[in-house]
Design goal:
The protein is mainly α and 434 residues long. The protein has a domain at 225-434. The chain is built from 17 helices and no strands. It has helices at 2-20, 25-35, 39-66, 74-97, 101-125, 133-150, 153-173, 182-196, 199-215, 217-224, 228-248, 254-277, 290-311, 320-337, 345-367, 370-391, 398-433.
């Protein structure tokens, strides 16, 4: 499965490179043939196993430190940890010079794991709180610096993970204000991801950004005066702006654009879907103008980026209505919740989501985005399933409910899958012709 996804990604990249004149068509065919060889995936397996082994060694060392070695002196403990750390870095240099780049990455990861163990050990010796954000920050900076100096993808992934852990510890110790300092580490990680041109790192960077908002949600709500549902609206509009930015600037970074586009689509549709599942009541009135101003600013930003995408030919004008409808559904939620009959919200949003899911499939087919096509079908099927359980489940006898449900789900899955494959094949054909 991973090999097929890699080949699909490589083919799209090669098409772009041919268009820009970086690669000839003959060379592109040779590259694809080489990547499709049966042994291509197998050659990567030792490197994957080496990285996993490095992770296990790092956990083993940290567990050993946490055991508190009573019989070893403090100085000996420190010397052992840091000697092992520099030995790992030395091994990484030797392996890199001998052409074993993947194993060198594993050695770098072991060195960083030992560095973290050293921080834990020093905290243990001098009775420092082990969840102090400062120690995690030092570890994160070391990982990002290693990634920059050695072009280490493993170090970059660890640095992004540690940035999230750092903000978690910081907000746990002081949740009065959002942990803004996280964004310095995030920006450095994003720059490194672009420098290394590593797609998994782009995924991690975007996930880390959304996780920060989830971790800091209460602090952001208190600071801005937003209600929880208004905060969800803000994040939905932010995801929509990310999607539009990916479209507007896709020509400048096709790989980054496709990754950002996918996360924008998923988060925007997921939050709009959440509004119908848990309508509730309007949490509270906005405290001051900061909250509404934040939502309005984000909506204007998304609209400006959508206009730019239209001007650049990345968003056909006939599909602007779908984007606008998605934004309108998000913005309208707090007002509908405050209305006299909020029970209508699930049915209003259910009908709108079904239409928007069909629009997403149409847009994906027109733009050549397989992800949009597939995700559109996922949203449509999930919405139909939700409607089924929300309606028939309360009206029919249990036995009839499950029997009828089984038949409908089987038939529906067959129809959906046939439609999805037909559209995806059409998308692939159009992409190949282009």
């Amino acid at each position: 499965m991973w090999q097929r996804a890699y080949l699909n990604r490589l083919k799209r990249d090669l098409d772009l490179w041919i268009e820009r004149g970086w690669v000839t068509a003959a060379n592109a065919d040779a590259i694809l043939a080489s990547a499709a060889e049966p042994g291509a995936a197998t050659r990567r397996m030792p490197a994957i196993l080496a990285i996993l082994g490095a992770v296990l060694i790092g956990f083993a060392v940290m567990s050993f430190v946490a055991a508190n070695w009573q019989e070893i002196s403090k100085l000996t403990k420190i010397v052992l940890i840091f000697a092992a750390m520099w030995t790992a870095y030395g091994a990484a240099i030797v392996l890199e010079k001998r052409g074993h780049a993947n194993f060198a990455q594993a050695a770098v990861l072991i060195g960083l794991g030992l560095f973290g163990a050293g921080i834990m050990l020093i905290a243990q010796i001098y009775h420092i709180v082990t969840d102090d954000p400062g120690g995690v920050l030092a570890w994160c900076v070391a990982a990002l610096a290693t990634a920059w100096l050695l072009s280490s993808r493993a170090a970059l992934a660890l640095g992004i993970l540690l940035a999230v852990v750092w903000t978690w510890f910081a907000i746990d110790m002081n949740d009065a204000v959002p942990h803004w300092a996280f964004w310095f580490a995030w920006a450095a990680a994003a720059a490194l991801a672009l420098r290394l041109s590593w797609t998994p790192a782009l995924h991690l960077v975007l996930i880390a950004g959304f996780l920060w908002q989830a971790i800091n949600a209460d602090a952001i709500i208190d600071l801005t005066g937003l209600s929880p549902s208004q905060f969800a609206v803000f994040v939905a509009l932010e995801a929509l702006a990310l999607w539009m930015a990916a479209l507007a600037f896709a020509r400048d970074g096709a790989r980054l654009g496709s990754v950002a586009e996918a996360y924008g689509i998923v988060v925007a549709f997921a939050l709009v879907g959440f509004f119908q599942v848990d309508p509730g009541e309007y949490d509270r009135a906005a405290e001051g103008a900061a909250g509404p101003l934040l939502i309005a600013t984000t909506a204007i930003l998304a609209a400006a980026l959508a206009a730019l995408a239209v001007m650049r030919g990345r968003l056909p004008s006939r599909h602007v209505a779908g984007v606008a409808a998605l934004a309108a559904l998000a913005i309208a939620y707090p007002f509908l919740s405050a209305s006299e009959n909020p029970a209508l919200i699930p049915w209003i949003y259910a009908a709108a989501i079904l239409v928007l899911a069909a629009w997403l499939v149409s847009w994906g087919a027109a733009s050549g985005s397989r992800f949009a096509v597939n995700f559109g079908f996922v949203v449509f099927a999930a919405e139909v399933l939700w409607l089924y359980f929300a309606t028939l489940g309360t009206l029919l006898d249990t036995a009839i409910f499950f029997a009828l449900g089984g038949v409908l789900l089987i038939v529906g899955s067959i129809v959906f899958e046939r439609m999805r494959r037909r559209i995806v094949r059409g998308t692939a054909t159009e992409g190949g012709a282009a």
